[in-house]
C-alpha cells in the first residue's frame, strides 16, 4: 500500500473510498488524518513534516488585525472566501484566507491586499 511505501502506517481499520479520511502515522511518528487522494497525490502528505499544520485561522485573524482590518465572516478553511473590512477606508470584500497569508509571507514591507481590495472596490 502507498502509506507503507512512504514509510508510514495506516492506523484506520479499513480502506474504503478515495474521498474518505484515514488516520495515518508518518515516518516521523506524526499522527494525522488525510484523504486517500491526498495520501497518493501529494508529495508532502504529512501536514507536520510539510509545515502546513498549525492554527491557520488564528494566523489569518492576526494578519488582518495587524493591518487595521477586521475579519467579518466565520473562517471555514483556507480556500473558502471570508469577508474582510478595511478599517481605514471602510470597505468590505471577499478573499480566500490562503491569499491573505500568502501575501503576508511574500511582502516583507507592508501588507498590500487591503489596499488592493479597496482600490478594486473604488474603480
Précis, in short:
The protein is of the alpha+beta class. 33% of the residues lie in helices and 20% in strands.
Please report the total strand number as a whole number: 6
**What's the tally of helices?**
5
- Overall geometry comes to elongated
Task: Please state how the strands of the largest beta sheet are arranged side by side.
Answer: 1-2-3
Structural class: alpha+beta
Terminal CA distance reads: 54 Å
Task: Give the % helix.
Answer: 25-40%
Order of helices and strands: HEEEHHEEEHH
The low-confidence parts are: 107-111
Query: For the CA atoms, what is the radius of gyration?
Result: 19 Å
User: What kind of sheet is the major sheet?
Assistant: 3 strands, antiparallel
Description:
It is a single chain. With 123 residues, the protein is α+β, with helices and mostly antiparallel strands. It folds into two domains: 2-41, no CATH class; 56-122, no CATH class. It is built from five helices and six strands. It has helices at residues 2-5, 36-41, 56-66, 97-106, 113-122; strands spanning 9-10, 21-25, 31-35, 69-71, 82-86, 91-95. A hairpin with a 4-residue loop joins strand 5 and strand 6. The model is unreliable at 107-111 (pLDDT under 50).
Amino acid at each position: 500500500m502507498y502509506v507503507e511505501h512512504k514509510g508510514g502506517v495506516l492506523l484506520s481499520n479499513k480502506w474504503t473510498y478515495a474521498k474518505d479520511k484515514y488516520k495515518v502515522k508518518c515516518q516521523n511518528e506524526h499522527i494525522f488524518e488525510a484523504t486517500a487522494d491526498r495520501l497518493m497525490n501529494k508529495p508532502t502528505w504529512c501536514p507536520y513534516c510539510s509545515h502546513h499544520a498549525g492554527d491557520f485561522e488564528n494566523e489569518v485573524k492576526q494578519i488582518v488585525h495587524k493591518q487595521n482590518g477586521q475579519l467579518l465572516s466565520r473562517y471555514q478553511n483556507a480556500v473558502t472566501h471570508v469577508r474582510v473590512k478595511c478599517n481605514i477606508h471602510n470597505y468590505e470584500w471577499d478573499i480566500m484566507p490562503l491569499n491573505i497569508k500568502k501575501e503576508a509571507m511574500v511582502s516583507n514591507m507592508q501588507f498590500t491586499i487591503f489596499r488592493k481590495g479597496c482600490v478594486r472596490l473604488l474603480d
